[in-house]
Structures
1.
Amino acid sequence: MKETFIGITIGDPSGIGCEITIKALDILKPFNNWIPVVFGDKSVIDEMISLLKTKINFLPYNPESGYNENTVFYVDENAVSGPVVYGIVDEEYGRASLIYLESAAQMALQGQINALVTGPVNKRSLKRTKSGFIDQTSILKDLCGVNSADTMFLTGKLRIFFLTRHIPLRTVPESLTTGQILDYIKKYMEYLKKFGIVKPTLAVAALNPHAGDNGLIGSEEIEIIRPAVVMAQKELLDVRGPVPADSVFHLAKEGLFDAVMSLYHDQGHIAAKTLDFFRTVSLTLGLPFLRTSVDHGTAFDIAGKGIASPENMVEAIKAALTYHAYFK
């Protein structure tokens, strides 16, 4: 496969995924040296094209057919019956988003697309499908047969890894172990090398205010986090920490560290999205292919109105184009 094929799922049909996909492709065309492949329902795509009055040449997926720099392939999944009702939680739309993702993942596993960009899904709609999944990363892990996959946020030069993800905040301290942190330090350092960083530097964020202030405001830094950092340093890994969370992300943005290990979901999300909400891109690492994603939800409140910003989708597609070759 000489050309680069980037798969893009539209996510939940009731949300803004289809809209921002079409708008992003309109911004990014002409497609020099790459070909978009959109996974969704052609009826949903046509409805949105009509709303946006966009002129994009959508063709059924067939890499042997003729195409030009303005062509977009689509894979019609026929998962939605009737016109879309925007902004609602619905089992049919949750199942449709599952079908789009499964189809795209299978083509990625077969080498038909080089990377996957995913539009936003709705967790409540996914839950109604009784599939057992409420997020796309878990679905992709299952489809690819991998035990773990890791999230990295990319916001300009700031890179953030997440030790834990969708768990209640009150359970974070009890979920931390020295062995776990050490294992993830090693894994994240290997990821950074894949990005072409020969001697990466990783900072581990602290859990408590002021990194526990020598045990005055919590003992996790002394008993759990710092021992993992010391063990990693003994293995000649350039790891620092625990670094107070109120400064570590700024220091990484300024170039002192190549990446930060965030200990829990909102610790890293708040930093990245405050820095640049619309340009923060999520990368899923550890799959047989690179997956990037917008870092926002379905925005049901504005879905179907034609006013959603495609900026995050543009950045997600750019990231897939830039980094897919590092993760073959």
Note: The two ends are 13 Å apart (CA to CA).
2.
Amino acid sequence: MALTFSAQTSKLSLKLIESYGINPAEILKKLQIDPKRLNDPNARLPYSTLDDIWAEAATHIQDPAFGLKAVECWHPSQMGALGYAWLSSENLKNALGRFQRYSRVVTEGAYFEIEETPKYLSLILHYRSVARQLPYRTDGFMAIMLAMCRANFGKHFQPAEIHLKHSAPEDTSAFEELFKCPVFFGAKDNRFVIHMKDALEMSEGAQPQLAKLHDQVMIEYLAKMDRKNIVEQVKSEIIKQLPNGNVTDTTVGQALHINDRTLQRRLKEQNTTFKTLMNEVREDLAATYIKDSNLSLSEISFLLGFGNISSFSRAYKRWTGKPPSHLRGSD
């Protein structure tokens, strides 16, 4: 089954890209990502899509350490309940524990391990096999953790050590300037290390009861995700396959490693069908594409997997009551 991530978390990546003067809408368009889904707190995308966003950003940004700029882009809303549970945690040790337990709310493409010694507390990042382990993404994760710790502990917070599996860039000054602690490249694992005394210090924003409420939200979300993830996975795969023009339950099932009968049964359990999801995806994408004056009706028809403009026009009229030419004129 394809691993996913919360669509809202990609806002951080896009904000980072925009900080370099690059229009993130162009990247979304190229990768065929519907921007409306990024505002849906329940939407999830294939984990590979997040790697695609970062890889595409790397082709436009010349700074090899651009991932570190994520420290300026993090906001708790990008992580939903996990972000706010983090802020209301009693201390950093509790916050890191929550992050480890509920990280699947944000991403399934990685998992985390906590290691304790009398002096230090480490959060270790492990990528799953689906991840490309892009160095600048790992740099971005470490920068995000720094931003999160500072949100709880104060701007003066600095980690004890940073360990990165990737090799050192030619210029490491950006790492030294940001983390202000030893940074070890070519390490055996990726780990964010803090002093235990800092981990146990009470956070100014500590609200244990509120944190527990967020915990309950995440527990319920994960349970719901396990039941309904199939719908988002099918929708994401339909979007990916639409320009090929021959999307079927068989082709989508093959991509998700599910046979036809199992796919139909699991969708039925969610009170939907493949045909319904295909129609919903096309309708949602059409509403976005039709507003893009750079796309002709022929191009929109192709992107939505229709064989010709006539088929697209009939579908669009069925969805909206009016033909697309009513808004666009004849292309």
Note: Residues 208-241 form the longest helix (34 residues).
3.
Amino acid sequence: DEEKVKYLAPDKYWETDSAVIKEKAKDLKTPKQIYNFVTSYLVYNENKLNSASIERLGALSAFNSPKEAVCMEFSDLFIALSRSAGIPAREVVGYAYTQNTRLRPLSFAAQGDLLHAWPEYWDDTFGWVQVDPTWASTSGGLDYFNKLDFNHITLVQRGLSSTNPVPAGAFKKIGDSQKKDVEVAFAQELPQITATPEIELQASDNIISGIPTKVKATVKNIGSTSVIGESLMLTANRLKITSENPINLPLLPPFSNKQFTYDLESKSSLKKFQDTLILSFGDTETAKNIEIIPFYYLVMSPKFLVVSSGVVLVVASGLVLYSKLHKKRVKIFRDFL
């Protein structure tokens, strides 16, 4: 809630504290009502596109002069009315692809680059929702409230300030103010869509029976599209898996990876036996053979005997040395007396 309050404040071009804005906002309770009002009340002024520079009027001036609007005024008025009505809102500036500049015009001037501005409002269910009242008005009523198209490409979002950050194209050297810097090109061929998961199982070759152990599982998506609604599952014949299994992965984005740890247990046994761990994710599987050995195998192993002998030798040497030093100290003490 504290975060959302930041997007209700007035600013230079969002005069939510204006009496006329407040009064109008009382009649408009929902984002849809505000959107409908802005699209029908403001009139897009195509003549302003012929100007060397387009002055931004702000919400209040747009409200008072509805026939002087371009995309900035449509956005500013929507944001100001929304904020005044208690609905968090902010501005988006970006590139909008259009094949018909009369029906879907661009009018945000960034020193030589012609971009587009549109607002977005906060919805407690869907988060930030982008709408375009400008194109809804100029296109004669196309629905840009319920289904904004993919022709809108965000460059910056303005919420805490109505002027910052500035978009791409606004950073220019002196003398290059009319130079076009923002170039957007579209792929001629779409890449082949692939969802290619890879899985890896990291586990010791030997497990001591009766002692809990852990194994690590990694799942990677090396494809170009997300893997949706799959589960990572570990199976074994004799080992008991005590951690969560299967593990549901609602979404694994392209070129991402996730790592998980499984807890395993085995019953105490006096015999050595083998088991096979099988890790599966969708149609992908990998397996690893595990040998479960009794604890006494560890005690009788050559390495353990060598280490144990070394420890015994060190301890014995220490005791002998301590005994000699102790006797020497006792003799010195007696001679002193």
Note: Residues 71 and 134 are 5 Å apart (CA to CA).
4.
Amino acid sequence: MSDRALRIGLLVESNEQLNQLRQLVGESGHQAACSLIASELDSLREGLDKLEVDAWLVTLAFDREEFQTFEELCDETSDQQQRLLDVEAWLAHLKVPVMIDDGLQSSPRHQEYQAWRRRILQKLEQLQGSINLAQLPQGAAQHIWVLAASTGGPEAVREFFQALDADLNIGFIYVQHMDSGYEQSLADIVNRHSHYPANPVIHGDVIHSGQTLIVANDHCVEFLANGTLMIKDEAWPGNYSPSIDQVFANVARSFGRRCGVIVFSGMGEDGAAGARMVHLQGGSVWVQSPHCCTIDSMPLATKATQVVSNEGTPSELATQLTNFIRRQDRNPSTV
């Protein structure tokens, strides 16, 4: 089970819905921790309070036409109507997220079943992100540095990680110009040479100390001040994907003096404009020395902004970053 998996409680009207939702929960990478039919709720309520559940998925038709208002519902006496009242009262006291769907399209025989299935699956896949976005996640990194590169970048970043101390209180974001679908391959390369495990970004990821998140090129990513990442349903602006300028500007706006960026080997000028924003917000801008780059265009363009405070070979940058972070940790007032 992935360490991103959540424990999902299911509350439904029928066994058919239960089977459908268990399958969708599994497909989304989560775990069905509790499965209930609505008619069982009253008899099992005391035990539910002891369950370790991260979120509930409820498929009940609260908005059926015959139940227009709460008052009208209270006037009814049928068992089904009373169950809905009981469920509403129970849901109101839950302290974990609740996703509610009427379940009217949950049968495979329904003409809208496939659309319903996609909708539920999307909600489940984004659930971890929604939880993280609503709170200050535990373990969010204090220091956040962006590693930016294009042509020749993977070799330079590999050398950087090989020389970097293993126990720094820092989280990395790796932005590499590349084709779609190569994020996991890039993560595998990093993981063979780094103490900072790499994974492609997913919606709601937290930038933890001791890890590396790899930004994909097909969807724009936003960074929030609480250390979480939000994947937007839109392409990166400009001529580059992913856009290093956009990532730099976003990180600078969200993290200010807590962030830094290193521009490694690459073609073009992506990152130069964003580097100014990082500098203006109090962050650090470093570059790989142009003389040791496969392609020196990106570091040279960033140096031309006159905001670069440090340069060196990838190994030298790793040593300098180790010393820089340790100094900041000894004197937190400088962050």
Note: Residues 64-68 have pLDDT under 50 and may be disordered.
